[in-house]
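Recall that a protein's primary structure is simply its ordered list of amino acids. Everything else, from secondary elements to tertiary packing, is in principle encoded there. The following example makes that idea concrete.
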Amino acid sequence: MQNFFVKSHGLGNDYFVLDEAQLSFSLNEKNIQKLCDVHYGIGSDGILLKVASSKADFGLKIYNPDGSEAEKSGNGLRIFAKYLYDYGHTSGKKFTIETLGGVVTAEVSKEVNGKASQVKVDMGKAIFGGHQVPVNCDESECLDHPLNIVDEAYLINCVSVGNPHCVIFRDKLSKPEILKHGEEIENHPLFPNRINVQFAKVLSRNEVEILIWERGAGYTLASGSSSCAVAAVAVKKGLTDRNLSIKMPGGTLQIDIDEAWNIRMEGEVKEIASGYLSNELILEL
């Protein structure tokens, strides 16, 4: 099983899984970038690396295509949970996973032909404290804070769900707008660790539509942590109820937020391919 990989997607947000114990090469920044490149590697929105853990049943490192490490990924966690279940790393449907953003609980909630098709993840708590997000904001909570970007004036809402997010509510969603300003907002000096960006439109008390600019990856069809962040901010501002659907270009996730700000996410996940990295590719790593 040396250099074995499995590539899957959660609503169009694709990752491939590697097992650290099976790798014959170093997974450094340069190699991550090459492996994620659609022309010279497998092509992916990121890499999920199975590692040992002393705190949970399994350990997970999440890498963005630019080589940086992410604290948490909702879609990545569902993909990783499917991999663990489908490939016999666990016989149970419920287990814990340690990430850089904390330990989470994942549960296979639906399967088809013995393979996980839908996964629930307890994503931890929404944290609104500015220094904890982190964001360089004078207020204790960065809600409706003005941010000027070139020719636009935004009101931003910041939250951490294990990784940092900036939610901007809009009356109308525009892909060209987030493509134009997403990278500048991500790298704004206000955010010391950079930030994930979401433009959101409230459709009803139980439904929000969003567009996503993912830190280290760019425009993304879907994001689990982004969905959790938008849901948390929408509830915090009284715009929605605590059980809601988050609609993205890639599909829809169900998010539940309890009174203590614990977040549960549920959605589908599908395998694309599995195989082995070629010797020719490995020689270049």
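The two ends are 18 Å apart (CA to CA). The first helix runs from residue 29 to 36.
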